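One-letter codes give the sequence; each number marks local geometry. A record appears below:


***
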Amino acid sequence: MKNKPTTAKFINRELSWLEFNQRVLDEALDSTNPLLERLKFFTIASSNLDEFFEVRVAGLKQQIESGAAARSVDGLTHAEIFDAITVRVRKMVADKYACWHEQLQPALAKNKIRLLDFSELKRDDLAWLDKFYHDQVRPVLTPLAIDPAHPFPQLLNKSLNLIVRLELQKNGVTHKHLAVVQCPAILPRLIQLPRDDGRRDYVFLGQLIGNFLNDLFPGTKILGCWAFRLTRNSELYVDEGDTPNLLKAVEEELHKRRRGHAVRLEIAQDCPEEIRSALLTTLNLTGQDLYLIEGPMNPTRLMMLYSGNHSAELRDPPFTAPVARALRGKNDLFAAIRERDILLHHPYENYSSVVEFLEHAATDPDTLAIKITLYRTGGDARIVGALMNAVNNGKQVTAVVELRARFDEANNIEWARKLEENGVHVVYGLVGFKIHAKCALVVRREGNEIRRYVHLGTGNYNPNTAKLYTDLSLLTCRAEFGEDATNLFNLLTGICQFQGMKKLVIAPFDLHARMLQLIAREAENAKRGLPARIIAKFNSLVEPQLIEALYVASQAGVKIDLIIRGICCLRPGVPGLSENITVRSIIDRFLEHSRIYYFENACQPEIFVGSADWMPRNLFRRIEVVFPIEDGNLCDRVSREILGVALADNTKARFLGADGIYRRQKISNGEKPHRSQSEFVAFAAPKTAAKAAEKIPRVVLASSPFQKNK
């Protein structure tokens, strides 16, 4: 693009992410959601914010410390972004704990789920906790003095700690000291009290330890204790060009991660100012890095209240995904794929079909080879087991394992080793690029021919997350797809130059250019008076050239609907720039994760699906695979059953305004409410699928309600 981006056109990336997390928190604040589902969103918002500090804020602070003066495309300097983040996060933290104190905790108590202070405990509970402390907690505690002989301890990332102020009488002189007690991660943060009447009562581990400090510091006077937690830089820094063994290099960096530079200090609100200041100085932090907490120090641990087979009435209705319509009654999976391409919509259609694809290949006497990319497997026994079983059955098996899948590195290293030990050929992809593609290739001998079966998807090979994330899978044996998949794996495992593909579009080689080309074609069609339309569904939109291309298309008259779960740096609804663009975000029971790109192409729609968001990292620093949907029936299904339903959502969708603020759409009198994920569930159910299909809306431009009022 020739035009240089201007500041008014872009929303800041970090601030946009924070607004996404606010939408997650809003689900916790939404009283129409079941109580435990609200608690789930509350913990997710907290976990998201932790990762934001570990990665994004940590990187931003490094930029500031290095003296980098460059401005981002939205016109802000690194220091200005950090200041804006601090203001926004403080408001979010205040909203989060107000939600806990004013809504969630009282509602939980009404439903016999209580978090109790020691002042509320009866004699029997105190006696039980006394025994629990001495039997289970005290043996693993290590009180740490802070004095010239005992320097401040190296506290682990996100660990729970107590800072203790105490007095000690020595030779008639009173000495004041500080000490730290680390709460070991092996202990539960919530301790459930014994009950036989259906109540679920808990005390926090930090409070329990604080109650027994005299036991840890005998002969002293405890003046006070306050919980605190550090967040550290958790990015991995591996120079691939300088390391002979990527696996060992990643392992070494993992050990450093837990002790990276501190970027945030959270501490109990009533902690004295002089102690807070001492901690900030010791940790090389400033007042901007300090967050005073009135409530649970690590809300993610409250997820324990959600887990278990209890309180069904406080949850979403149970849902078990059925086998996909195209595979019901099919005993031979390979034969079903030969009949026609199969599209699976997860979690509404069972992910077991993908697992069975690999399991059948592992035991099938005609299978010669299996190749697969693994980004976040979760160590699933069936998938990893199928690969190892295939080796035992004489198949050639190759797994391209991405060791640097953020926060899954240790898990991936463990399973990479097990695969290697069992004869799977494990490789780690291309130097300089993360392998984010989702692809599996099965090579079979069928008579005198070799046929290749391919699975392509938008989500990881992880059956657990497949129950929580919305994703698409394609199973096909089209010859050109098989040839492209073969060339892709040769690129990942061998030494060769990218030669282009017949059907697949691969980042970082041609995906960016292809998307620009397709957007430009829609703009040209609009100028010529031909039907032009773009619908794109993905997680994040950041890349400036693609945003500029969408602006140009909008000005040419292309109607553009973007369904973006998370970050969006594009500013929609700006007169003369983007008035033909709508942006909506859907936050609901399942995590929206599928990536779909629809281009009208003058009434000959082209639909692409794949693993890539429109972010610089996905387009230029990762191996991503985007593939076309070529079966006409499947194209109609994606446009009507998936995109059409998402665009009609007026219950969970929030629209982004030109001011950068997301708002819910008000349902007018007589308008029927549509909740897309509930409709997907209904459509997947075998008994109701036919009736649900009749109600699916055609893809129409669902304009932003904030544009209608102009």
